[in-house]
Design goal:
By secondary structure, the protein is α/β, with parallel strands linked by helices. It has one domain. The protein has three helices and five strands; from the N terminus they run H-E-E-H-E-E-H-E. Strands 1, 2, 3, 4 and 5 form a five-stranded mixed beta sheet that branches.
Length: 165
């Protein structure tokens, strides 16, 4: 049976987003192809407590609802109840290679709830967070990242899983 997306299930396929982004900018005659963020010193630190005692959250680039044009800054939604779906409408991504119809395939909130019940993580933070898919490192670094960090600190988050789309 052939895959309706034209994907050959006998061979691994992938999308090189680095190459796709570079090609996207060059095709639009930008004089400067997209440069991926690179940090010589990464601001990560060992956990202060075991994961089984930690507060965990998720951060995604998908958005709640279908009104993509209004999704221009960081947002937060309650963890409970867990969202039933997140949207990627209005965002550029390879819809032939994958889909976002199954929330659990890209946003593991239900797996984290299972890990809480199993004692593998302490608890989920009271909020989950989203940041817009911006083609501006400046906006991400200067505006959205500090805002999400502030919200995570308010919620006493110990660990955040980044799940970009």
């Amino acid at each position: 049976m052939s895959d309706p997306r034209g994907v050959d299930p006998t061979h691994r396929t992938f999308v090189s987003y680095i190459d796709k982004s570079r090609e996207y900018y060059l095709a639009r005659n930008y004089g400067n192809p997209y440069r991926w963020s690179c940090f010589d010193e990464v601001p990560f630190a060992p956990p202060k407590r075991p994961l089984s005692q930690s507060v965990v959250t998720l951060i995604t680039t998908a958005h709640e609802g279908v009104d993509a044009p209004s999704f221009r800054s960081a947002y937060s939604i309650p963890t409970a109840p867990a969202p039933t779906s997140l949207s990627t409408d209005g965002l550029f991504w390879d819809r032939l290679a994958t889909h976002t119809e199954d929330l659990d395939s890209f946003f593991p909130v239900h797996r984290l709830e299972e890990f809480v019940r199993a004692g593998r993580i302490g608890r989920l933070a009271r909020r989950l967070h989203g940041v817009p898919t911006e083609y501006s490192q400046r906006k991400t670094i200067e505006r959205d990242a500090p805002e999400v960090l502030r919200r995570c600190q308010e919620d006493c988050v110990d660990a955040a899983l980044l799940v970009p789309l």
